[in-house]
Amino acid sequence: MLNLRGVEIRKGALDGPAQARLIEALRPVLKAAPLFTPTMPNGKPLSVRMTSAGSLGWVTDKGGYRYQPTHPKGMAWPAIPPEVLDLWHGVTGQDRAPDCCLINYYGEGARMGLHQDRDEADLTWPVVSLSLGDDALFRIGNTSRGGKTESVWLNSGDVVVMGGPARLIYHGIDRIRFGSSRLLPKGGRLNLTLRVAG
Ligand SMILES: O=C(O)CCC(=O)C(=O)O
Ligand SMILES: [Fe+2]
């Protein structure tokens, strides 16, 4: 395990078969709650497409960043698959389940700027994130804006945990190596982010 500024990076936490099982488990979720292109509060589209599973999903549009119980198309989010819940319980050792599994899809050229995860009601819960598919360059900054940053490549099956003093650390994805993994038939990267949100 790698520890970068308090952020735990569990390289190879999931082996190939476990990754393939997760992709299978996510297929019906993505069918029930299709990926959409979110926009920043200023109207600018994000390059990642996203959706959620769980009682709450994270959305952003002209109304701002928030958690809500429904997909932008109006339906409730599908349940978080048991395989994903097992990962959370195994990593956190907590009985409480996450109420949101945010699913980010990075196609060719997609990225995510440096940000803090701070829309959750209780910031004492860790954020657990799983990488599936193409490699991604993950950048870690500081708990306030600015300052030096460090980067690390995340590969399929890696798990990142942001908790404790690192819960509010700035982080982002600079770029992916499109086509570096064969896990997703059409390429790209799926990132699952598990959180106690409400
Ligand atoms: O894609 C990633 O690894 C990070 C995603 C992320 O930071 C987020 O959804 O808040
Ligand atoms: Fe984040």
Automatic annotation (TrEMBL):
Any one biological process term the GO annotation gives: oxidative RNA demethylation
SUPFAM superfamilies associated with the record: Clavaminate synthase-like
Fe2OG dioxygenase domain sequence ranges: 97-198
InterPro entries xref list: Alkb, AlkB-like, AlkB-like_sf, Oxoglu/Fe-dep_dioxygenase_dom
UniProt-recorded Gene Ontology molecular function terms: broad specificity oxidative DNA demethylase activity; ferrous iron binding; oxidative RNA demethylase activity
Required cofactor names: Fe(2+)
Binding site for substrate: W58, Y65, R66, Y67, D119, R145
One cellular-component annotation, GO: cytoplasm
UniProt keyword list: Dioxygenase, Iron, Metal-binding, Oxidoreductase
Identification of the protein by name: Alkylated DNA repair protein, putative
Source organism (scientific name): Ruegeria pomeroyi (strain ATCC 700808 / DSM 15171 / DSS-3) (Silicibacter pomeroyi)
